[in-house]
Design a protein that fits this description.
Elements lengths: L4 H13 L17 H4 L5 H8 L1
């Protein structure tokens, strides 16, 4: 883990307080920071939803 997800959620909360559209999505990967590159199947539906 690069950083605790708690900090990411704090950032999302601050953005929302400013009226921004933000979301925090955690993927369950054993591959650490490379999970976002290697385990794309874990978040493909969420990404498709975002791009639609």
């Amino acid at each position: 883990m690069l950083q605790p997800t708690f900090y990411n959620q704090q950032t999302v909360d601050r953005l929302k307080k400013q009226g921004k559209d933000a979301e925090h999505y955690v993927i369950d990967s054993i591959k650490g920071h490379m999970g976002g590159v290697i385990d794309t199947h874990l978040f493909s539906e969420k990404l498709e939803e975002f791009l639609s």
